[in-house]
């Protein structure tokens, strides 16, 4: 079952739209899982590379479908899509986790969401195509395993490798 937005403190403006199954929203959730951040208080943000304006514009459309205004901010080395809502910030942080603990919520994996759009969001965030193959790199092993499950749903035979990046001092999965 698709959950309602999590409540926040009493004076916060409530989101008046329920989450519903939609391709743009599925894409947004995939992209958020790859490149999103929530402070759990008010800010929800997705950081993209320069040149990925079309991804940012699609996020704005999806947030609007969910009843939220989002703004695109061009920075000197990235693009940020930001929305301010205590309900969304708290919900996204709880549903998708943070940093190395990122994951797709179980309701997104089991509902009749367009899994191709979730995959596309993940790949547009932390991956790319190499011919007919997908290369996806993320610090969350769980998120990489979930992408593998989604790809297997379509008959693909993905493999996962662990790489340690000594410059950063952390492991990445791809």
Q: Brief description of this entry?
A:
The chain has 174 residues and is α+β, with helices and mostly antiparallel strands. It has six helices and eight strands, in the order H-E-E-H-E-E-H-H-H-E-E-H-E-E.
Provide a descriptive summary of the structure in words:
With 174 residues, the chain is α+β, with helices and mostly antiparallel strands. Helix content is 39%, strand content 21%. It contains 6 helices and 8 strands; from the N terminus they run αββαββαααββαββ. The protein has helices at 23-35, 53-65, 86-96, 106-110, 115-126, 141-153; strands at residues 36-38, 43-48, 70-74, 79-84, 127-130, 133-136, 162-165, 170-173. The strands form 3 sheets. A 4-stranded antiparallel beta sheet has the order 1-2-4-3. A two-stranded antiparallel sheet has the order 5-6. The protein has a two-stranded antiparallel ribbon with strand order 7-8. Strand 7 and strand 8 (170-173) form a beta hairpin. Helix 1 (23-35) packs across helix 2 and helix 1 (23-35) runs parallel beside helix 5 (115-126). The longest helix is centred in the first third of the chain and has 13 residues, at 23-35. The chain is globular.
């Amino acid at each position: 079952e698709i959950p309602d937005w999590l409540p926040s403190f009493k004076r916060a403006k409530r989101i008046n739209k329920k989450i519903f199954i939609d391709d743009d929203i599925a894409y947004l959730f995939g992209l958020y899982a790859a490149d999103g951040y929530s402070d759990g208080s008010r800010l929800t943000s997705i950081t993209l590379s320069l040149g990925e304006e079309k991804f940012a514009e699609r996020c704005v459309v999806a947030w609007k479908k969910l009843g939220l205004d989002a703004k695109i901010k061009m920075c000197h080395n990235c693009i940020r899509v930001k929305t301010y809502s205590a309900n969304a910030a708290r919900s996204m942080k709880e549903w998708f986790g943070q940093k190395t603990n990122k994951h797709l919520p179980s309701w997104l994996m089991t509902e009749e969401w367009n899994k191709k759009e979730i995959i596309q969001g993940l790949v547009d965030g932390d991956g790319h195509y190499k011919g007919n193959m997908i290369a996806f790199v993320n610090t969350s092993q769980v998120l990489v395993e979930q992408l593998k499950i989604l790809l297997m749903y379509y008959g693909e035979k993905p493999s996962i490798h662990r790489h340690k990046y000594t410059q950063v001092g952390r492991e990445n999965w791809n």
